[in-house]
Write a structure and sequence with these properties.
The protein is α/β, with parallel strands linked by helices. It has 12 helices and 37 strands. The chain folds into 2 domains: 223 residues, Spore Coat Polysaccharide Biosynthesis Protein SpsA, Chain A, CATH 3.90.550.10; 186 residues, 3 Solenoid (UDP N-Acetylglucosamine Acyltransferase, domain 1). It is elongated, with a radius of gyration of 35 Å. 45% of the residues are buried. Bound molecules: uridine-diphosphate-N-acetylglucosamine and calcium ion. Keywords: Acyltransferase, Cell shape, Cell wall biogenesis/degradation, Cytoplasm, Magnesium, Metal-binding, Multifunctional enzyme, Nucleotidyltransferase, Peptidoglycan synthesis, Repeat, Transferase.
Length: 545
């Protein structure tokens, strides 16, 4: 279920052919945002306000899309080049009013034969369907101008729709120019219109700045059309949000919440469980499948997609992440990553770009991955940094393993083969290849390749200093415990020197190197009783599987 445009606009059918032009007004200052960034670049559900306006315009497939820019136009133009390279921009150097803005737009276009739509860059919820309906009504009625209106409780600040005795539209009067009686009108001008080109041209030519602001008002074109004996239409929209502009950050937050509420509602109806809609944010560009569960504190952004049966959250943010069927992603921050079907991620994982986790693979707790391809059923369960590494299927990475990929100058990659086993607390210093079916002993620093079937161990051998506790910590709880343990063990286990008065020289416990025990090779989680006979285990994770 994906949309035609990132903001979710679908292409409506337009009876009577495409409109000639959509003019998007976007030159205003947006002072109340109090921002060094153009108001139009502020985002609703992850997309700039302007991109909603452009997507709606584009969905109508007009011959021309013209965006009138002015304030912070470098920012706006750069953004337009990214989101709508097919749109033309025209510069309105001085903001002399909405009528002037449309004059400037028309000057940049060839002679237009078909209808001209005018919209605003800062009215993000207006849909292409609404625009199409406005055009359809306009065409059916054969009107010269049609305006989209709304009935609101508080019309302060808006232009009012003035109607005659027969309910016909006489014109629009601005709030500041309105009479006491006109101010009581609750039908407001959204600022969205469709014009028959002749009426628009004639009207624009007649505009004069004879109003409180000394501007050229586009709204006056309606009055002129009416005076010339042409019909003017007004279509009231039920969905008030679609005509709402954003002027400050309070409105921005409010609109974000509304867009999100609608998006979640749509997904819930499509079979997604949203446990807490108030703390769940899903961008319009996200794609979800049936039986996905979103737990509280989840934010899904960009081109994120989640396949059937997967569970995301709580407290998870995914940006441009592809999640496979039945996967589970818990308390995770991820971007530009792929999570395979049945895989499990988190809690507390950080998936950076280029992470690809195979089917039923695992990226566990306090694990950071970057440019890491982790094979099917492979596991990176605890406390690991995996950067620039390829880990083969069924491999097991112990707790606290670091794939060191950066020497301060260049980044290099490492590879761990199929069903290989890297012991806990090892550092694999790239570039290194650990072959298929190889082992790395716990606590190793691996700087050279390891062949198939080989065990690599690189660390100091353990040495025990008998009697050290009795001598250096005498009288402590530890010393008492040692004494009890030694007494219980009997004389055979009493180490020589335990009662001696002087420190023995600190020598290797094994004078002749003994073969490494399994326990020495790997484990962090040895069984508590008899370590020497236990099987190796990098972590408890192996037992989980
Ligand atoms: C305008 C309408 C008003 C309507 C309201 C709806 C006029 C005279 N009034 O009022 O009837 O109720 O919108 O929001 O049209 N712009 C330019 N160049 C300019 C002036 C404005 O590009 O010279 C753009 C702005 O960036 C904005 C839009 O046009 O996107 C509306 O301008 P704004 O100044 O907000 O108009 P309002 O006074 O709110
Ligand atoms: Ca406005």
């Amino acid at each position: 279920m994906s949309s035609a445009a990132p903001t979710g606009q679908q292409t409506p059918v337009l009876e009577g052919g495409p409109v000639s032009a959509v003019v998007v007004l976007a030159a205003g200052e947006g002072k109340r945002m109090r921002s060094s960034r153009s108001k139009l670049l502020h985002e609703i559900a992850g997309h700039s306000m302007l991109s909603y306006a452009l997507d709606a315009a584009t969905a109508l497939e007009p011959e021309h899309i013209v965006v009138v820019v002015g304030h912070l136009r470098e920012q706006v133009e750069a953004h337009l080049a990214e989101i709508a390279p097919h749109a033309t921009t025209v510069v309105q150097t001085e903001q002399r009013g909405t009528g002037h803005a449309v004059q400037v737009a028309l000057e940049a276009l060839p002679e237009l034969r078909g209808d001209v739509l005018v919209t605003y860059g800062d009215v993000p919820m207006l849909t292409a369907e609404t625009l199409a309906a406005l055009v359809a009504g306009h065409r059916t009625a054969g009107t010269a101008v049609s305006v989209l209106t709304a009935h609101v409780d508080d019309p302060t600040g808006y232009g009012r729709i003035v109607r005659g005795a027969g309910d016909e539209v006489l014109g629009i009067v601005e709030d500041r120019d309105a009479s006491e009686a006109q101010r009581t009108i609750h039908e407001i001008n959204s600022g969205i219109y469709v014009f028959e080109p002749e009426a628009l041209r004639e009207g624009l030519a007649r505009l004069r700045p004879t109003n409180d602001q000394g501007e050229l008002y586009l709204t006056d074109v309606l009055g002129f059309a009416r005076e010339a004996g042409r019909a003017v239409g007004a279509y009231a929209i039920e969905d008030r949000w679609q005509t709402e502009g954003v002027n400050d950050r309070v409105q921005l937050a409010r609109m974000n919440a509304e867009v999100n509420r609608r998006t979640l509602e749509r997904w819930m109806r499509a079979g997604v469980t949203v446990v807490d809609p108030a703390s769940t944010w899903v961008h319009a560009s996200v794609d979800l499948a049936e039986d996905v569960t979103l737990l509280p504190g989840t934010s899904l952004e960009g081109a994120t997609s989640v396949a059937a049966g997967a569970t995301i959250g709580p407290d998870t943010t995914l940006v441009d992440v592809e999640v496979g069927e039945g996967a589970s992603v818990v308390r995770t921050h991820g971007s530009l990553a792929v999570i395979g079907a049945g895989a499990s991620v988190g809690p507390f994982a950080y998936l950076r770009p280029g992470t690809v986790l195979g089917e039923r693979g695992k990226i566990g707790t306090f694990v950071e991955t970057k440019n890491a391809r982790i094979g099917d059923r492979a596991k990176v369960p605890h406390l690991t940094y995996a950067g620039d590494v390829e880990i083969g299927e069924d491999a097991n990475i112990g707790a606290g393993v670091i794939f060191a990929n950066y020497d301060g100058v260049t980044k290099s990659s490492s590879r761990v083969g199929r069903a290989s086993f890297v012991g806990s607390d090892s550092t694999v210093v790239a570039p290194v290849t650990v072959a298929d079916g190889a082992y790395v002993g716990a606590g190793s620093t691996v700087t050279g390749d390891v062949g198939p079937g080989e065990l690599a161990v690189s660390r100091a051998r353990q040495r025990n200093v008998p009697g050290w506790v009795a001598r250096k910590r005498s009288g402590s709880k530890t010393a008492a415990a040692a004494e009890e343990a030694l007494a219980a063990a009997g004389p055979a286990d009493r180490a020589p020197g335990a009662d001696g008065p002087v420190d023995p020289p600190e020598v290797e416990q094994h004078v002749v190197p003994a073969p490494l025990s399994d326990q020495e090779v790997v484990g962090v989680d040895p069984p508590t009783s008899t370590p020497s006979t236990s099987t190796p285990s990098s972590t408890d994770s192996e037992r989980e599987s």
